[in-house]
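The record is passed on directly below:
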Amino acid sequence: MVQTSFLTRVLTIFTLSLIVAVFGVYLSKYVPSGLFLILIIIEFALIFGIGFVRNRPTLAPILLFAFTFISGLTIGPIIYSFFSIGAGSIIFEALAITAVIFILLTSIVYFFNINLVNSKIWVFLIIALVGIIIAGIVNIFLRSPIFNFYISVAVVLIFSGFILYDISNILENPNMTNEYMAALSLYLDFVNIFLALINILGFLQGKGKG
């Protein structure tokens, strides 16, 4: 079956992307903090780069894995900060919950054959995402832990919606969807939920950064 075969390829690339990111997280402790902003800029550049070379089977995976590795480098300090205060369990809890959410939502779309491609859900998700970005910028100045908590809850809900839509799009349009871009989308969904759950669990356990 074409749909299942394509989904399997995408999920394989997605899984490899997560593994590469783990290496980035591990090595992040050797990266000077002054390079953090530069790495963020490189991340954005690589996202656009993947889009440009998505149909080139040699370059696309190289740029994708370069992106996930660098994202691991930028996520690493967040993770290590929790271990440094004796709250490493929060990281493992967030990772486990994220994995459960991802597997559950993927299974729901796959086994119940839910088609969201022709729905307007993506419009709502994009609008909600823009709203969350604006709220996040505002909270940079407010520095409100409770506001950050609610933003994180919204992020989990929004990117859970993106997982539903992205999996549906992969299954409904296997001949029109690029496997590397699809894997990138799923990776971003997964990582954003993971980071939001770290904030949520950190807040609930009194370990949040505000």
Remarks:
- The longest helix spans residues 145-172.
- The mean pLDDT is 93.
- The CA atoms of residues 137 and 200 lie 18 Å apart.
